[in-house]
Fold these 4 entries.
Entry 1:
Amino acid sequence: MTAAQVRSFAEERRAEIRAKAAAIGIDEAYISRLVDCFYARVRTDETLGPIFEEAILDQWEPHLARMKAFWNSVALNAGEYSGRPVPVHQRLHGVTAEHFGRWLALFRETLDQTAPSADAVELFHGAGGAHRREPADGHVRGFPGRVADRRSSLRRGRHESRVQRRCLFHRAGGRDP
């Protein structure tokens, strides 16, 4: 397969993903609204607000832009995000699985309240099979402080880390504050 054929296939696949997302109401405008609403909730949350304020300081606009690029890449295959979110979050001190559970709960609420359709909710929830549920022991692979889990995550390779990034969004829900 030539480079031109690969590009053509990738462009066709991206257009197909965007068309399917648009058919259920997912586009860049919705993702922007979702991210803005979700982080407005995070900032006012008594548990998560202080953690995010300490980590982000006065850099909320760049953070929101990064998160929009991330979710555009996940939901629309936009190719806008090229970072590595798991290592960034692993560097946070004092963050526990309970914090992650709260993050997911806020995200779920926001998704459920803002999604333009039930299919849109399912798109975000349905990305990762087993990743949709909290593990029985409360440990979340790739979450800060889970060294053994980080090692096993590395062994699984890049594909699963992409799935995990998608699931972070797809497992959470929420709506306008």
Note: The radius of gyration is 16 Å.
Entry 2:
Amino acid sequence: MKMEFILTKQKKTKENKLVNFISFFLYKSGIIEKNISLVYNEAMRCVLQVVDDVSLKIQNELYSSIQKGYLLFVGFKDGDNIDIIHKMIDKILSLRLFPDENGKTNLSLQDVHGEVMCVSQFTLYADIKKGRRPSFNYSLKGEYSLPLYQETIHYLSSLVSTKQGVFGEDMEITLVNHGPFTLMIDSGDLV
């Protein structure tokens, strides 16, 4: 039996985080038609770099690498869900960031048969307002962001060649940035 939920804007609480987490898994298992979340400051954040080459090492061992494409750092915040992930990835893949034969940025990642290196990075939500040490209170905790990161990888992989880092690991990333061309994209900007 399919269920449908309608929720309105809510205050951020631990209970709301749990509802968002449960909603994601109910949606993935087909029990509910649409992933819902208690929405407050929904803002999946991505930093996208156009690259000619990326290599990612873990404990000094090469783990993955790509050639021409995007290095995509992703961070999650309370309220992010599968719909936001799909909207963000669709937007990112539709961007025309590669030069055509006239040097104009008219070609998408798919037009140039590029790849994506996707790395989870909770530090994208660092708060530096107070003191000298960043606070990461706005970052979604690991147990809630891991399924969202896995969905990001799954959805990206269904559309383009995708490599990834390892969630929660200390990684060494070497890249050749083309341009440089770097964008910071928040899902709240897509509305």
Note: Residues 41-190 form a domain with the D-tyrosyl-trna(Tyr) Deacylase; Chain: A; fold (CATH 3.50.80.10).
Entry 3:
Amino acid sequence: MNKRIVFAAASAASLLLLALALPGPARAGALDDNGHALEASEQATIVTADKLTYDYIRRFAKFEGNVVVNDPRMQLTADVLTILFNEDSSPHTLKAEGKVFITHEDIQARADMATYDVATARITLVGGPPQVLKERNILEGDVIVFWRNEQRLECKPHARLVVYPDDFGDANSYFHAPR
């Protein structure tokens, strides 16, 4: 597999991760059997899977089985990760399927499928139902859509938010009228 293909696949996987989180602390990278780092730097994104299929003609990369994406900003696990490329080899859609679990700092998301549209910076979580968890607080619904560039989110139908006021400091300032 040539370097351009590996770079394109790794870049596409990084885009999904970047779409879901702000930069966070770097994590230790993977090591080979001799204890040497596999990645070039702490900023490298490492994607592992049981199988990788890359089709230059049909412009896609598909990671299958035990997919793990380790990125300095977050981690993602799924059964399958598919990346669709434009004619210029830039990714346009990333789709993680099957037991999708995403972690960034103290935020976790899980769904049966997560899709990222590069052009619109839109992330869609569906199936399971999808959930976004921060500490004890939980957001869930049939579909959760997040527009990264707009810092906007929509959860529908059957939106449900479980909030623990203790997690937000003085509960009186949030849930009671001033006296």
Note: Residues 1-27, 173-179 have pLDDT under 50 and may be disordered.
Entry 4:
Amino acid sequence: MNRSFHREFSSPRRLRRSGFRPSVFSLFSLLLAVAFLFAGMGCATAPYTTVPARYPGPRRGVARIPFSRSQIRTKLMKQYQTWKGTGYRLGGMSRRGVDCSGFVHVTFRDQLKLKLPRSTRDLAQTGIPIRKKDLAPGDLVLFKTGWGARHVGIYVGRSRFIHASKSKGVTLSSLRDTYWSRRFWMARRVAVPARGG
């Protein structure tokens, strides 16, 4: 590149002399464009993998799985104990870092042998909606955490859920906490036990 050309057009001092001033409107437009880019993504932006699903998924219904409710809860808590404290990483799906929908995806795959969508947006359309008072271990709990931002966790009983938090990583939280109770959006059932209990 011609050095004089580079100096002419890259020097902040020369830009100021030429009268270049970013307007408030142009800065606002830039921020708005960035916000729209991230709106609706939830806490995960990792694309779907091209690897075939290992297990069937309940895209528009509820899958029957060969575990009782108590077994589902035990398996979920086992996953939590293994992953507890794992740091948050956008798009992550491993112990080196995981985001909220990644943790849901991995937990259902490894513990309940069920393939769920990878993104929070798609999880919000999976299974069937249920009332908060009807929550049972294995149900999904979803939250609106900001403008266009969504968060998802897995209910484990006694008003508690496991999830990958941006501030704490994989953790156990209560739906009764002020923060989560105010941001609760919906609950969805993606699986039912093939046996009772």
Note: The two ends are 73 Å apart (CA to CA).
